Predict the 3D structure of the following.
Amino acid sequence: MMRAVIPFMREKKSGAIVNIASTAGTSGAVAGIAYTCSKHRLIGATKNMAWRFRKEGIRCNAVLPGAVDSRIGKAIGAGHGGE
């Protein structure tokens, strides 16, 4: 998706990209290695894009939500020694 919008933002010399990752991408998680790796990769790509296009007026940031108090969150925690 980032690749698709960058040309338009470069033309306008401004833009903002917001990616949704997870705290699992910075600290690991019980969610599994594939999930953790995918979020770590997205955070890295976001930082790279922010650095690469900063002089062209394009901002790139990531939002990293943490665990959510829900039935599925509790089930995951319970399966890994949590409550």
The helical segments are 2-12, 24-27, 33-53, 71-78.
